[in-house]
């Protein structure tokens, strides 16, 4: 038996609980069997947090009935109950007690080896050239889930078919990865020469900062071909598979992200809206460093982590602390800007050469950067 959590919830009182009773009655009649509830957070949310104006919430009735039914099963009933959710943090604690969902299996996105195995599965039905290597493809797709890997393989096959090729080669896979990450190429998007120049220096700024900073991720490709809805250019990096980050690594990462804005400033003496997404990421990471990771001396070794957004109306710190966090975040971003500006000013020749080469070729790879800037 397979249902989604939302299948239980209706606007009419009692329907959800009735459906739970019917489901478990059918399961008992058909035993041995498996009950699988997808997106269980739709009915399993912690009670008391989703009631409106103190009214009795239909979800709570459904959850209560589910808890009662699960308690009624012995170990010899021949029925196994499984559930899945992307938000385990919002589930009611009663659901996770022994005898209910007491075995929790966390399934993260696949690592390098996992992605290689998934690529091997999806490459089997595709006619590929001898050069296609699942290990190389897995290295170029950090953070990809299984569905995204399947999408890359499908896109690569479609691209090869459009090019009337006998088999799918590495270039088709490269183009497919670019399409999944950045969206469709928009070569017909009309950009003025001045805007194209700004984009070239912006992307060159990212590339230079990433190339010369010790802890920055290695650059694979930089492009000024418009993609997707808003992206006029992008730089692609290969982040390492790691779970712990030092202050130095995070700051170098922010400097790399700030490189585009700084390059515009020192080249043209003015700034554009092109750095909006970069600034969002820098601001978010700065607040995390100061208020969550305890990486700020003034605020101290405290963490105000809020995975469920419970602090919207009642923050666990004073207005004075809130102001201090804001001040320290601005100071941190200011320091990142100064460090990045110093680096790009020192490497101004490389910035100019890289931007001009981008305007000429539109897409540069790691080998091109080594030729212009030297070995990393």
Overall description:
With 376 residues, the protein is mostly helical. The chain folds into 3 domains: 2-96, P-loop containing nucleotide triphosphate hydrolases (Rossmann fold), CATH 3.40.50; 112-182, Helicase, Ruva Protein, domain 3; 193-307 and 315-373, Peptidase M41 (Methane Monooxygenase Hydroxylase, Chain G, domain 1), CATH 1.20.58. Helix content is 51%, strand content 7%. The protein is built from 13 helices and 6 strands. The protein has helices at residues 15-30, 41-44, 58-71, 112-123, 134-139, 146-162, 170-182, 193-212, 247-268, 276-291, 319-346, 348-361, 366-373; strands at 2-4, 33-38, 79-83, 219-223, 234-237, 363-365. Helix 1 (15-30) links the parallel strand 1 and strand 2. The chain is globular.
Which geometry do the CA atoms define? globular
Strand order of the largest sheet: 1-2-3
DSSP summary: helix tally: 13
Q: What do we call the CATH topology of the largest domain?
A: Methane Monooxygenase Hydroxylase, Chain G, domain 1
Q: Summarize the amount of helix as a percent range.
A: 40-55%
For the record, the count of structural domains works out to: 3
């Amino acid at each position: 038996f397979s249902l989604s959590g939302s299948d239980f919830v209706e606007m009419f009182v009692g329907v959800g609980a009735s459906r739970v009773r019917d489901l478990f009655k059918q399961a008992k009649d058909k035993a041995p069997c498996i009950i699988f509830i997808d997106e269980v957070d739709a009915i399993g949310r912690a009670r008391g947090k989703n009631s409106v104006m103190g009214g009795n919430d239909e979800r709570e009735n459904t959850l209560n009935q589910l808890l009662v039914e699960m308690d009624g099963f012995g170990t010899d009933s021949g029925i196994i109950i499984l559930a899945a959710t992307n938000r385990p943090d919002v589930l009611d604690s009663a659901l996770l007690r022994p005898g209910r969902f007491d075995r929790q299996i966390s399934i993260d996105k696949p690592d390098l080896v996992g992605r290689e195995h998934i690529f091997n599965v999806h490459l089997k039905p595709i006619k590929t050239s001898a050069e296609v290597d699942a290990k190389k493809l897995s290295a170029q797709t950090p953070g990809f889930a299984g569905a995204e890997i399947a999408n890359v393989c499908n896109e690569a096959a479609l691209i090869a078919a459009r090019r009337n090729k006998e088999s799918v080669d590495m270039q088709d896979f490269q183009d497919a990865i670019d399409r999944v990450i950045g969206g469709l190429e928009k070569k017909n998007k009309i950009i003025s020469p001045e805007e194209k120049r700004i984009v070239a220096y912006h992307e060159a700024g990212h590339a230079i900062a990433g190339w010369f900073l010790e802890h920055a991720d290695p650059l694979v490709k930089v492009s000024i071909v418009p993609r997707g809805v808003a992206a006029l250019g992008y730089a692609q990096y290969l982040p390492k598979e790691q779970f712990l980050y030092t202050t130095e690594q995070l700051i170098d990462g922010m400097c790399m992200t700030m490189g585009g804005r700084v390059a515009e400033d020192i080249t043209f003496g003015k700034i554009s809206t092109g750095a909006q997404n970069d600034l969002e990421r820098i601001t978010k990471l700065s607040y995390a460093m100061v208020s969550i990771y305890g990486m700020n001396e003034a605020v101290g070794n405290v963490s105000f982590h809020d995975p469920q957004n419970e602090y919207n109306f009642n923050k666990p710190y004073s207005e004075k602390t809130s102001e201090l966090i804001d001040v320290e975040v601005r100071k941190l971003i200011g320091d990142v800007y100064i460090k990045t500006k110093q680096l790009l000013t020192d490497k101004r020749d490389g910035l100019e050469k890289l931007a001009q080469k981008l305007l000429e070729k539109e897409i540069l790879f790691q080998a091109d950067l080594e030729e212009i800037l030297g070995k990393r």
